Amino acid sequence: MTRRSALINVMARAAERTGRALIRDFGEVEQLQVSRKGPADFVSAADIKAERMVRQELQRARPEYSFLLEEGGRIDGADKQHVWIVDPLDGTTNFLHGLPHFCISIGLARDDEVIAGVIYDPLKDELFWAEKNAGAYLNDRRLRVSARKQLDDALLATGIPFRLHEGKPVKEKFIDQLQSVMGRLAGVRRFGSAALDLAYVAAGRYDGYWENGLHPWDVAAGILIVREAGGFVTEIGGRRYELGSPDILATNDGLHEPLLRLFAGKPQTGRLAD
Ligand code: IPD
After folding, report:
1. Whose CA is nearest to atom 11 of ligand 1?
2. CATH number of residue 121's parent domain
3. 91 in contact with ligand 1, CB cutoff 6 A
4. For residue 273, what pLDDT band results from cuts at 50, 70 and 90?
5. Ligand 1 atom at minimum distance from 95 CA
6. DSSP-derived secondary structure letter, 205
7. Which of 4, 63, 99, 249 is the 20 to 30 Å CA partner of 177?
8. Average pLDDT over residues 129-144
9. Do residues 19 and 108 both lie within one domain?
């Protein structure tokens, strides 16, 4: 049995309690789908309520720490060195449409470096978590990225730009990226939750994941979980990924280099060129 630290227990409790509330609200959304008014207002209220719950739980345990919240923005506490980075409902569009794929993501950064993360999928009761230098886990099971080394076998996840303000350059950038990998891989998926995409790379379900223009709350927990599971997280150009980087590429260890080359439009080397 894996022993979780006090810190991870605090984060897990906040995510699991909020998850139970989200499951109740998700049931309501399924009813509202068919009503004339639709579920949009209800979902934004559920999102705000979930954020308040996570915040209260975390604040009770560590009253001094600061917050960076998807809805509430930056809230400084007495301790500005430690910052909880929270997405209370990642996969909001799925939730809104009654699609059962969403999660709560909580990262803790110390001096801008993520040192602990949890991602909780309440419908599957899957808790992905990691602490710096202590490995990554799914519930009680140690996580390891996949061992695939061949691009032809690789299943990648991505996110498709959708916000109006993302504008033409982001759309074109994404289409170029898709064109670089299309036809070279086993497949590309778009499931609609960046945090779960990262968690699934850590769990070896996906071999890699890329996206543009994410926010720190989408990725804070996930980047640590992937790295602690033995994966790589960089920008698509190869630089180390930092919170606020313009794009992200998270992969297992064997495919990182081949994928960087593929995105850069460079020919593959060795067996990969076959
Ligand atoms: C979104 C999801 C989605 C990703 C978007 C994110 P939200 O987060 O993670 O998969 O493509 O870029 O904004 O809005 O559901 O918290």
Report:
1. 159
2. 3.30.540.10
3. yes
4. very low
5. 15
6. S
7. 99
8. 98
9. yes
CB-based contact 14:106 (threshold 8 Å): yes
**Is any atom of ligand 1 closer than 6 Å to the C-beta of 94?**
no
Beta carbons of 201 and 156 less than 8 angstroms apart: no
Q: How far is the CA of 218 from the centre of ligand 1 (A)?
A: 7
**Residue 268 Cα, ligand 1 centroid: separation in angstroms?**
31
The per-residue pLDDT for range 188-197, each reduced to its tens digit, is: 999 999 999 9
User: pTM for the full model?
Assistant: 0.95
Radius of gyration of the chain measured on its C-alpha atoms: 18
Condensed to tens digits (0 to 9), the pLDDT of residues 224-247 reads: 999 999 999 999 999 999 999 999
Beta carbon of 194 within 6 Å of any ligand 1 atom: yes
User: 233 and 162, same structural domain?
Assistant: yes
Contacts of 23 (CB under 8 A, 6+ apart): 122, 123
Nearest C-alpha neighbor of 68 from the set 212, 168, 217: 217
Domain for residue 1, yes or no?
Answer: no
Residues 97 and 215 in one domain: no
Ligand 1 site, residue 87, Cβ cutoff 6 A: yes
Does residue 209 come out as left (phi exceeding 0), alpha (psi in the -120 to 50 range) or beta?
A: beta
Identify the domain containing residue 219 by its residue range.
Answer: 151-272
Which atom of ligand 1 approaches the CA of 215 most closely?
13
Task: Name the domain boundary from 142, 159, 180.
Answer: 142
The domain total for the chain is 2
* Distance (Å) from CA 271 to ligand 1 centroid: 36
Instruction: Verify that 161 and 247 share a domain, yes or no.
Output: yes
